[in-house]
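A favour, since you know our structure tokens better than I do. It will help me judge whether the discrete encoding reads sensibly. The space below this message is yours for that.
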Amino acid sequence: MKRMTWASIAIAASAGLVLAGCGAPASGSGSTETQTVTVVDGGGAYHDAMAKAVYEPFEKETGIKVVSQSYDYSQGAIKAQVQGAKQWDVVSTSTALADNAAADLYQPIDYTVVDKNGFSEADASKYFLWSVYSANVLAWNTESIKTAPTSWADLWDTAKFPGPRGLWNSPQSVLEIALLADGVSWDKMYPLDVDRAFKKLDELKAKTNIVWYDSGAQQTQNFSSGTSVIGEGWNGRIASSRKQGQPVDYTIKGALSGGTAWAVLKTAPNQENAMKFMNYAASAQAGAALAEAFPGMSPANDKAYPMIPENIAKNLESNPANKDVVAGNMDAQWWAANYDAVYDRWQKWYSAK
């Protein structure tokens, strides 16, 4: 089972804080009005799967209405809520932070309410419940590319695979991808050789057009339309798009494993309901239901796997059968310690595009 990794995955986002669902206005836990909890996820198909697998069953079981919104998974949006609006309760996040940094944005998880049985100690941490794992994979548009690429080095091969590249606008995963393409083996990946990674990215930027995306919804639209013909994708997003008949595909070979966590904002207006939601989202039945509703999502709760159909479980990147196929787990601890410095450098490099 893969443990507390950095996500990409994870899964991610719909740009722009767009309301993805509706419900009664938020109220305090002691209110006589309809009880609510505001939960913020990545939007799009991921939101739809979350609604089916987690939000709706939680509402039926507890009577607490989930008011759902979506965001771009940026730390800036979370900081804006904590420092300003103070409307969100629970967020889905792929950014691991050290405890001292997390304390500025989140409140400790109340594990007297949230059952962490089935989770590793790392997955059920002080501020983050790393509940689901996914993979950053090499993806492509099948109408533009007829011969399937097989490695990240193919992303740099513009002669064999011409056309715009698609990459996530974030240093995490992209730096690892650049190093894999440059021949670094996974056992030598950390600490990241940041200089070497940016040099390799300079090479790609000089030879082709990079189409950056900030959300999972943008990513799938770009690959489906051919705006990006090859690049980094999230396996759940690409698999879901393929299932819907879009001309996309991916390989799990060389995939990077990353996690997505639930966390409660320190300014959550419905703190009691937030912990109740966290408890349900952590359950084995919720994890198994999400694995069925959204292809590629691997629950961190070990107790979920007996509930998942074999035809689905065998394709999850956390399946031991895929151990020698995927590249490995991104190092959340390294990123937590180095994120600010690397992100500042990334912003300068990206802005100079």
In short: The first helix runs from residue 44 to 62. Residues 1-32 have pLDDT under 50 and may be disordered. The first strand starts at residue 36 and ends at 41. The radius of gyration is 19 Å.
